[in-house]
Amino acid sequence: MSIDSPELLRDRYGAPRRQHRIGTRGWIGLVVLATLLAAVFVAWVVTARQAAPTFKDIGYEVVSEARATADFELTKRPEDVVTCAVRALNQEHAVVGWVEVTVGTVPEDRLGEGGTSSHRAAVRTTNLATTAVVESCWLEG
Questions:
Q1: Quick count: other Cβ atoms within 10 Å of Cβ 121?
Q2: Are 102 and 82 in contact (CB under 8 A)?
Q3: 135: which of 31, 45, 85, 127 fits an S-S bond (Cβ 3.0–4.6 Å)?
Q4: Pairwise CA distance, residues 98 & 53, whole Å
Q5: Is the whole-model pTM more than 0.70?
Q6: Domain range annotation of the chain
Q7: Do 104 and 50 meet the contact criterion of CB atoms below 8 Å apart?
Q8: Is the per-residue pLDDT at 49 higher than 70?
């Protein structure tokens, strides 16, 4: 028996490990699993976007050095409670006023197409504002 004979090596170190290979069925299973996960992710993203409130700035008015108003439209589901952050900016685009407006259930007579309603937010300012806009809106709870 030679020094490198397979029997001598197997006796000394044990049988070599078998390599596990993924067969055709295994690859098909992985592809199906990846496809299902991608479909669930896409459905989750679409559902989350439909539930998110949207807003559109309509106008603003600088009432005085200490006050401005922002007019905006908000689209949301009727049962949702939404808070919108409204900010007033000065000529250098610095924030000179900030307010959070919470909108709950809106009466049917105030709802427009697609659940859109109009709102006005009054913002107290520290200096003269040149504009007032909605920064973001989010669902409460």
A1: 22
A2: yes
A3: 85
A4: 20
A5: no
A6: 6-51, 54-139
A7: no
A8: no
